[in-house]
Design brief:
alpha/beta, about 45% helix, two-stranded parallel ribbon, UDP-galactose 4-epimerase, domain 1, Rossmann fold, seven-stranded parallel sheet, 13 helices, 2 domains, about 300 residues
Amino acid sequence: MTHPILITGAAGGQQGSTGRLVAGLLLQQGIPVRAFVHNLDARSNELRQQGAEIIEGDLLHPATVQAAMKEVKRAYFTYPVTDGLLEAATIFATAARDAGLELVVNNSQFQGTPDNPVFRDLQHAASFRNLQHRLTDRIFDWAQLGAVHLQTPPYYENVRALVSRSVAEQNTVFLPWGDGNAVIPLTGAQDVARVAATLLADPGLPSEDVYSLVSETPTVLEIVATLEKAIGREIRYVPITDEQWADAVKERLNPHALDHLSHLWQHFRKGAGNYRTTDVIRTVTGRNPQTLEEFFLENAKSIGASPQ
């Protein structure tokens, strides 16, 4: 593959960092990567040392996006959980269409499975952010870029971020997830990145335009039990109100993310989705998806495992 693959979010964020993972997977295969980063720092320097071409820019600035598209045929689009998704997607789709891209892999959000189509309707969006993702998918489709959408539920990494502090300090999970029987569909960021990298590296074009990635569908109590097993000590689950949770995390989350997650918890508590696991990760990559238990075991120290 002679044309570089453009990867947005390549420096990585605070949790899933799929852009950075995709860049790394492609570089390991010797595929040229153009890493689109917001700032030049130690993370971009590390990517440069791995062989990536570094482009500093902003997805909300059309000129930098257009410059990044030169000689590109394929790209990975992801955007952090903050304001600006629709604007960034429109700018990116316009630039990609003008540059003649043949494939854009779009990191989207879960919208239902083929046997559960109602949850792909705009009126059933779980949050305003989820609605924005649904509209973003349509923007890319209308641009006729050969876009494919990776529609994913919350990541294992999101769960880790939510529980690490309270588990380490109090052996307790404090979340507004109801009585413990709510189902929380999950997947791992590593598997999302592997699917994206596989599709981008394949010289052919994907056979589908939507890939729904759901690795597990545990209840809240099952998540806690899996965590207990992984870190080797008893963990309590204590349900709290939406207001209590929002007050506890407001200093760590931007308003956009806080609104999205607050509505997402309400959606899960209502049991609005008949969630099912999908076989996409194994079908596309040839490997079974990472399990929640495997993820917790790999990250036990960061979550507060008992010393051995």
